[in-house]
Design goal:
Blueprint (H helix, E strand, L loop, with lengths): L5 E11 L2 H12 L2 E6 L2 E5 L7 E5 L4 E9 L2 H13 L3 E3 L10 E5 L5 E5 L17 E8 L3 H11 L3 E6 L4 E5 L7 E3 L5 E8 L3 H13 L6 E5 L6 E6 L5 E6 L12 E3 L23 E2 L8
């Protein structure tokens, strides 16, 4: 079996029109803590990493980039060669959080991906009642699924945990977690970012906090079929979808087979009910064009 090249999802960056409101939601509902502020950028963390979420004051609510930590310098060099051979464009982008080395490139439909080696751990901030264990995964809804699937599997070395239909959608892993990336067809947007919490009680606390703010959960609690994680969803002030989850499958065996789902079988997205909020698939933030990021 080929050694893993990507260790984990490390952070995601968004441009937001209302920086104070989005920071307040990230702190009060997700449980993140400000690590650093640099001009119109805020870096938020949940543990010893420099940051897991970057918010950039902008004229548009949008995705800026996604970032993954590699398993080391050799893996980073291998990935750089693969990306160059595959013909993807490298883009000039400052590296956040002081990693030892890294680079960014332009993926399908304008998705900017940062790959970097690890950075020295920092002191963990004092958490809150809903502080996540870690940043977990994201769901992207490209217009064309297959180019995104090929990037993550053929170039970055992710493996397929679950497949919906015949190439309709994929849940991809880079470590033993069931998925770090989910790809489902849509209108070319970043659909949601997911944070893992310790237990179900943390999900209930998030729902209570939303109610105290006069909001409702968008979806859940529910248990997904793909991954079996229990989750609740809500939207943040930018209109981005946030998932808080626990109890996701871990796939330890290198011999694990892909699980295939009939797209008409609602159990792939919910084992407990076939309800899915109207318009859910239409939500998400646009992916920035290459010249719009900082």
């Amino acid at each position: 079996m080929t050694p893993d090249l990507v260790r984990s999802l490390s952070h995601v960056a968004f441009g937001v029109r209302d920086l104070p409101a989005n920071q307040a939601a990230a702190e009060s509902l997700i449980g993140l803590v400000e690590r650093e502020r640099d001009g119109d950028c805020v870096y938020l963390t949940h543990g010893t990493s420099h940051h897991a979420l970057k918010l950039i004051a902008d004229e548009e609510d949008r995705l800026d980039h996604v970032a993954f930590e590699t398993t080391g310098p050799a893996a980073l060099a291998e990935l750089r060669a693969r990306i160059d051979d595959a013909g993807y464009e490298f883009v000039d982008h400052p590296l956040d959080g002081l990693p030892e080395d890294g680079f960014c490139f332009l993926g399908p439909e304008g998705l900017v991906v940062e790959l970097h080696t690890g950075a020295a751990p920092l002191e963990a901030p004092r958490g809150t009642a809903v502080s996540p264990n870690r940043i977990g995964h994201f769901n992207v809804n490209p217009v064309e699924v297959e180019p995104m699937h090929r990037l993550f599997t053929e170039v970055l070395g992710f493996r397929v945990s679950d497949e919906v239909g015949d190439g309709l959608g994929y849940f991809l892993r880079c470590n033993s977690d069931h998925h770090a990336v989910a790809i489902l067809p849509g209108r070319g947007v970043f659909h949601h970012l997911a944070w893992e919490v310790k237990e179900f009680a943390n999900l209930m606390r998030v729902a209570d906090l939303l109610a105290e703010r006069g909001q409702r959960t968008l979806w859940g609690p529910l248990r997904h079929g793909a991954g079996h994680n229990v989750a609740v969803y809500f939207t943040d002030p930018a209109g981005s979808v946030v998932e808080i989850y626990t109890d996701m499958d871990r796939i330890e065996s290198s011999e694990a087979q892909t699980v295939h789902w009939d797209p008409e079988d609602s159990r792939w997205y919910s084992l407990w009910t076939d309800y899915r909020p109207p318009g859910l698939r239409e939500l998400g933030l646009p992916i920035a064009v290459a010249g719009a990021r900082r």
